[in-house]
Amino acid sequence: MPQKSRGLLVCxxxxxxxxxxxxxxxxxxxxLWRRFLRWCLVFFFCxxxxxxxxxxxxxxxxxxxxxxxxxxxxxTHDMFVADxxxxxxxxxxxxxxKMAIKLRNEYGPVLHMPTSKENxxxxxxxxxxxxxxxxxxxxxxxxxxxxxxxxTHPYPPGPGVALTAxxxxxxxxxxxxxxxxxxxxxxxxxxxxxxxxxGGNEYRHPGASDRSQPAVMTSVIMETGxxxxxxxxxxxxxxxxxxxxxxxxxxxxxISGHLGWVRCIAVExxxxxxxxxxxxxxxxxxxxxxxxxxxxxxxxxxxxxxxxVSTRSPYLFSCGEDxxxxxxxxxxxxxxxxxxxHLSAVYGLDLHPTIDVxxxxxxxxxxxxxxxxxxxxxxxLSGHTNAVATVRCQAAxxxxxxxxxxxxxxxxxxxxxxxxxxxxxxxxxxxAVVLHPxxxxxxxxxxxxxxxxxxxxxxxxxxxxxxxxxxxxxxVNSDGVLVSGADNGTMHLWDWRTGYNFQRVHAAxxxxxxxxxxxxxxxxxxxxxxxxxxxxxxxxxxxYREDDTATEETHxxxxxxxxxxxxxx
Length: 569
Known about the structure:
Blueprint lengths: L2 H15 L9 H23 L15 H16 L11 H16 L9 H7 L51 H9 L3 H10 L20 E8 L2 E8 L14 E8 L5 E6 L5 E6 L3 E6 L5 E6 L5 E6 L5 E6 L4 E5 L4 E5 L7 E6 L5 E6 L3 E6 L5 E6 L5 E6 L6 E5 L4 E5 L4 E6 L8 E4 L5 E5 L4 E5 L4 E6 L6 E6 L4 E6 L3 E6 L5 E6 L13 E6 L5 E6 L3 E7 L23
Antiparallel strand pairs: 1-2, 3-30, 4-5, 5-6, 6-7, 8-9, 9-10, 10-11, 12-13, 13-14, 14-15, 16-17, 17-18, 18-19, 20-21, 21-22, 22-23, 24-25, 25-26, 26-27, 28-29, 29-30
Helix pairs in contact: 1-2, 6-7
């Protein structure tokens, strides 16, 4: 008897001879029970071994797990794959259809382009249909295709200009790009390309996609009659745009008269006087040429945070931390309208350049659009999650731009009163937004960076890094001089196109003031753009002008291109 069977019989004897406590098994029952179990084991091992009447059992051979797994894999493979070594045959019809669809989807616009005679001779008569069964379009057979080099969609030249047939601008491709395209096209297309290519220089934003491409030689071969012409044209080497030289600005007048921080400033359209609002709750009107005080207006019961002079009517608008928005008639120097609705301090306001609409922004996280004449609230622009610090209007879309302490900039649809685009690139509060007077672009100021954007979708252009302070105000003139004023009293002047910081100014505070009262809250160019006015925390207004004695030799441009500078965030 095998060793396992003997072990089982020993176990059976032990169980029957050791009953559970409290139970006694009779002697005869124990014998019968042992005999019954013995015959059951004999019958089981006889069936297991395959030999009836014998109790010999075969030993089970042991295998490793690795072997058993691979045996199972082989059995599965044999069951479900008929031929192990032969790949799945390729269906020619399916392959042709797949390639024809791929050609049509990816190369459809250029499949009708002319090919050289060498390729035609090599392919033979199957030029009408390629190797994948893609047939040429019947509309292009037997006739010459005309091409036209066109530019972008038309857009206005800048903020405040309506898009009409006389004012629209359409950016055209450069002359070199049009000529290289014309060489690769038929003769008729070449005439069209030369006709539509501009002759002058075009404005190209820094950081464009062709900046990092190396200069290469392009070879284009085409058929003209029986002769084959080849043109080798060198692409213009991409370069970083060099900043334009701007003369430095110098301080030439300090105007004092306010008894508190000067929080806002605006120049009237006739360029005869300017107006300031202060923490002393007054609005003062000053003569621009002499700097003398002409008039003081009282009516606000808290800090005046915003002033603006209308170009369409003799009205002055002001707002303040007393939640009030006032309209002043400058013929009588009295308040004629109040605009009620904001639930907290009003931080800024702006007038629409073409329609009688006033836009204000507040600490209640909203911006409101008012009808100037009826005092009605047309829209409440809600969406910001923190105080709205600045608002700007323009005639082109988007007509309203807001910057907020929730670090976002929103471009609004004026008609619908809803957000068009939300820009979330800034990491800290956006306290200042400025629109370029000529280009279809704008800039936003934050302690992390000054960022430039392109309308209408808010495409990012570049960062202007280096002014590491809380930027309270931004302004720009037509020459491309961008001025940023900060909470610590520093003022940086930048070249708008390249982002080059060509001057840094930190004017001394008024005698008798603390150094901690050095701060710039607002700045603005006059209408001639020859003077720069700043409203500061030392209760003064400082006036700057360009240095007439400066030249490119005395103040050279110390500029080095930084390729890695233009990050998205």
